[in-house]
Predict the structure.
Amino acid sequence: MGTHNDAVDLSLMDDVFREYEGQRGALIPILQKAQEKYGWLPPEVLNLIAKKLGIPVSKVFGVATFYAQFYLERRGRHILRLCDGTACHVRGTPILLTALEEHYQLEPGETTEDGELTVELVYCLGSCALAPVAVLDGEVLGRLRQNMLLRTLKKRIDLAKPA
Amino acid sequence: MSVHASPSLTFESPEQGPDSQRRCVAVCMGTGCSSSESALVRERLREALVEQGLDAEVEVRRTGCFGFCEQGPITVVYPEEVFYTRVKPRDAQKIVEEHIVGGRPVEKLLYKDPLREQPVQKWHEIGFYGKQKRILLGNCGVIDPENIDHYIAKAGYQALEKCLTQLEPTDVIEEVTKSGLRGRGGGGFPTGVKWGLARKTPRWPKYVICNADEGDPGAFMDRSLLEGDPHSVIEGMIIAAYAIGAEYGYIYVRAEYPLAVRRLRIALEQARERGFLGENIFNSGFSFDLQIKEGAGAFVCGEETALMNSIMGERGQPWPRPPYPAVSGLWDQPSNVNNVKSYAYAPAIIRNGADWFKQIGTPKSPGTAVFALTGMVNRTGLIEVPMGITLREIIFDIGGGIPHGKQFKAVQTGGPLGGCLPEEYLDVPIDFDSLQAAGSVMGSGGMVIADESTCMVEFARFFLKFACEESCGKCPPCRIGSLRMLEILTRITEGEGRLEDLDELKRLSKGLQRGSLCGLGQLAPSPVLSVLRHFEDEFRAHIVDKACPARKCKALITYEVVAELCTGCMVCGRNCAANAITGEKLQPHVIDPELCERCGLCYEVCNFDAIVIKSPR
Amino acid sequence: MTNSIRDIAEEARCIFIIGSNTTEQHPVIGAKIRRAKRHRGAKLIVADPRRIDIADYADLHLQHKPGTDIALLNGLMHVILREGWQDDEFIRERTEGFEELKPVVAKYTPEVVSEITGVPAEDIELAARMMAENRPGALLYAMGITQHTVGVPNVMSCANLQMLLGNMGVPGGGVNPLRGQNNVQGACDMGGLPNVYPGYQKVTDRAAREKFEQAWGVSLSDQVGLTVTEMLDAAERGDVRCLYIIGENPMTSDPDLNHVRYSLQNTEFIVLQELFFSETAQFADVIFPAASFAEKDGTVTNTERRIQRVRKAVDPPGEAMPDHWIIVQLAKRMLALGATTPDPDAPFADWEYQSWRDILEEINALTPIYAGVTAQRLDAGEALHWPVFGPDHPGAPILHVGKFTRGKGRFVASDHTSPAELPDEDYPLMLTTGRVLYHWHGGEMTHRAQGLEAMYPEALVEIHPKDARKAGVADGDLIKVASRRGEIVAKAQVTDRVEPGLIFGTFHFAESAANFLTNPALDPQAKIPEYKVCAVRVEKAGSSLDERAISE
Amino acid sequence: MINLTINGESITAPEGATILEVARMAGIEIPTLCHHPDLSNVGACRMCVVSVQGARALQTACTTPAADGMVVDTMSEDAVETRKFVLEMLLTDHPNECMTCEVNGDCELQDLVYDYGVKWPEHNGQRHQWEINPDPNPFIFIDRNKCILCSRCIRACNEIQNRDVWNFAYRGFQTKLVAGADQFMLDAGCESCGQCVAYCPVGALYDKMSIGLGRVNQITKVRTTCSYCGVGCNFDLNVRDGRIIRVTSAADAPVNGMALCVKGRYGYDYVHHPDRLTRPLVRAKWLGREAVEERIAAGEWAIFDEAKQRLTHRRPPNDAQTPIPNTQYPNTQYPNTQDLNTQLPPDTFIATDWDTALDVVANKFAETKKKFGGDAFALLASAKCTNEENFIFNKFTRQMLATHSIDHCARL
């Protein structure tokens, strides 16, 4: 599970639990809210959720690891979600990936050592008409080309100089 | 929750009605256009109007997707329906000054059809819309999805009123059954029959569930519908609930659709305020409410039993049927799961009658089909066409053919669980059964066009990789079998393939189809099989000649400099992270195939087309 | 148990556990109860001074002070009567003494009971409602009820509650003591008691006496014999000269071990049959190496009165021999010495047993409740719950169906009486004792089961953070626990499983057995010692003590 | 009652039974892996698929209720081929180690692979390489590489033991059997009952104490009753060469079925502990100096080292990380005192022989009875002895010693 140094403030969860009090099947929304608050799902939080909902940790962990949306590890300060939906795929996402791997030694799902950038592969952001698309920290980058992408990244993020 | 004894179907302030002759500039605020600054466009338009002191008379309206995302951001000026494309924020000024004030449409913002020399003025004259028939998307681009009055003005919630005040639940089911509506999730199961089954089970509570977990990469029909006309889906669900006897419902929306979720939230609130949701709707004694459940990123949750597990907070794994949801679904109660579109048809069918619906489309697949037309085609976007139209019409008349004069190669429908069809199938009429016969499927509406530059082997591998990553892992055929297939396909794209692999792929496919627990595993081999069936020569090229005809598979291609064209500008060298490109200034450069990573950056940046991609043969 | 494990697990709609750490002491029953609660929706109420494991699964945990069971049970009955939830028909048809019960119970309003037990009044109300609304309900208890100076009244009060609810003689109901040892039931059934012959035939009963006199060909006393604790006192006085012990370890299992040690030292001749050189062995004169359960054949009787087979799987080590062989050998030698001269014509005068089957036949002949428990039926795999009155009698998984064994069920009302020793200035804390999942009794076996020993290698004493702070003790510190009778050193386990003012210890570890501390005060009737309550004080142990605790 | 046809045979069955249950009642075998009669059905492993007339696809017999008029073929080509495919797929991610596997000959996967004639699938694709035995639990051994993800352990823990220690994490080919949040079992609330092991159809979960000590064809099973608490659980002692090497659950155990607790399943090794007493012991003072010296000199008797015995009682605990070594057969040392002139304290225990020891006791008892009568005796019976032993001990008390002073630990 996630490595992390500074302590996690569990009180953030109080109103989440209040919101879903007595609701059936609330585990997933609660995990989503938790991730909104912490950016990922720290072990302490998983344990707390299990305790509060009266369900085994094994179940919480099983669910949290099943869905792609949940992160059990810290992520980078900047997050690039690269769309590999069919439309984007045929319009060049693979080659964008190669460029990224080439320049940042980053495979999808990985984070740079300096914790600056996380690259994720997602299937369809629903902007197929702008394919290939990526989302950098929530901003949509449409009709991408390798050099465009690399330039934007350089501009946006000061990364420990990639080898 | 505020519950009105009797909800009103009249506007609270009529002049806001979209049909009013009042001038209105509609700006698309769908995900597509939003991602190219349409919000800013809207803002600028407002400001410009204020400057002109016209903000009182002219409404700037937020609308859902027009479908023609390719040309986004879209802006339409009503009532003339002048259709502006690729509108930048700075164009707002012009639109207001020249068009609104001056009455002269802004020439340079009009859509230029590659097939016609005159720019097209009006929305419906554009080829892209020519052959469309917009039932579900009828309100998209017309009404403000965040304003229930707009929906009501378009006869919204009248069907619901009719059901609750004039029809017995069984009448509703009969009408829907008579209409011949088939499930738009891809299964094509008769919706009316499905509702009938759920009604038959004498256990309460019952649930209606809307499957908006639009997982197919390259599909965004459901998203656009939810963003552009959320009430039609909600109304459809309430009608279904009434027919089945359910008192609660869920809309399971894909996590990646924040805008759709927001619009749904607003719509639900407004529907509750007006009493369309809640207790004793239309004084009929019937009560119903529903909530949104956001998915958490699992394609398999598009499978109805997995979806219900997910709603219950479990791992999204399917269960073997029986028990069928109609008998024992959510929390072991009778449940009805339909796709977004299936529900959205219901109001129209109830309003206009089964016969009206049946005369659209084909006898066995009545109604329309909504597709997200994407890939290597001139006009990409969201389209709605009558069933029975041919693939060729869609791709060439609506889609405007293949860009850059390239050759059409294949059309993929049905997403990762669908299939690819080549040229010779282009005249197949679109409907559930014909597509199936041709070796593909209707699916939920993704339609991706591949041109000569697409490697079909890699294409097949792409879909299988997706299925493999999305396998829930419950049953061995899918969990392990899909990986074994992927390993073979990867091998082939890397030039390590053997001819026996083709039979092995077929054998494994059979195993998955026959043995897998749910649709995901059973259909995962479909893309591979269809490619094997229609493009076996490409497979052979990879295996026998170690060549990638489309020059896409990294292991089988080389980048080379055409000395005659190279000016030695050194741009490529500077961009090459692998330092594979050498050469003196102003001298032709050379690429070392050993060092080259095939990232294609040089190809991209060369201003003289001096770099070519080569593959044997 | 009046009912079978099966019907409690599958039929009871409410399960009330009082004074039983079921999931640790009878884990398989514990698991069945968890299953009943979670997969069958049975209601689960746990009354225990500690937040024991199963309390975490309960709908309601009544954390009452040790030694206040009668008050708690009376409180429950008070609410039931006040609300008119009692089963009048059952009371009318099946019981007597109800009128006497009423006035007693009337005094125990939830408020009063809350005062005595420390359980919130509303929880008492709620518990009573659950029991009333979910019938049949089974009551399970163990040593937590019996090991008190009021052990017998405690049990009576349990019976009162169940009769009041009409929970007797029905599947899923009953008063169900969970017996500790694998054959403690059988040992009682087979006359391992000073007041009865096998099958609970009273030694004071003339007919019974004559029956055995004729069977064994000797004349028998009509005087009740001594109980364990009385034996030790008699030994201390020198009245008992020979002590013959089979597979028991009074030097860890009896209360006030210092007194036990003194008594044993004082006994002239002690014979012991054991697997291991136990604490008690140190005081023995002759030790016979005995066979373990895996090394002999025979039958045992479980807590639900079911008789089952034990089968020989391996040979005893070295010269070790099964206990029955040893006893027979001694008997024969004593006959040879003329120590007793039974009438040779008596059917069972002699000691010529070829195997356990021969003994079982004698049991069948002399023990009515075992009359039908034949080797043949056991071999045929029949499930036999005594009483099995004859070869064709099916046995009785459930007792008191239709009518109680004694005719009518008798309500015997009791009032709350405080334990014999309560905390005071000198000994401010209350000690209650018990066992843990990984060890068994004196630990003769479990300390030599390497996995179990690895799981729980040393004595722990549970103490509440508050008391720990007072005593300046941190989790894992060695502490000295002292009572008026002795002291031990053990590791502190700071936990809120116990309430402030209460500590918990075990007697699994000889050198720090809680029984150096426990109070030998007895229940006047059952002669059972008050293991569950005594007064102690706690202090951090000095390093010298650390040494001892570790090295010993 | 309903009527259906399975493999041409018409069968009458109770309402609500599954196809699998009906078939097995009728003696028609349908192979299963994830199914177990004690546990809920999940239809995951696909082994029990059968063809049902009119059904679109194969149906899992374990989850499909038998219906009136149903026509089932359990051996249709589709069904058989699917089973072969499933087994083949499982093998592509399973080590080929039957030769050294603990459960060789006692493995449901192995049997089915054999029955369906599935060949070992060679391939150089991905195989799991989980760490073997990564968990310090002293009783339960895990080899995830052998896990077929049937979830029987998960359901056993959830439905039988109700501890919910186990669950699946991640998904697809990455699916992993984890305790809690991928922790050590004991940290995830495990109480080491071993139910997960008992229900594992393959060698993924096994009893750590028994590793390398014997496989099913090398042992004999002896059904007996547990020696710990009063529940009366039955189980099989697995015996090899006169040693108990393992305890296994017995599905037909009347009280407990497959369920056991940590003591019952893993607390048996005391039986073979070196501390076991193996010879009758008598204090020197009851034997007489001469006898003792003679017999010791003759090598018949020996001095018993009491101090040593008491120490072994408090052996420091094993390191839980390392698998428990098996205790050797009792080899207690009895030092022969070379020099008989050394003073022999009268309280020294002498390891004697049965005749001597029994006579010492018989004589002492007889003499005491003569002098002081029955009241001079007190006897403690044992709740650990059999009914028969307790009976004759009670007879010995009353008939032989003429007293009723017999009791036992019933109250303790």
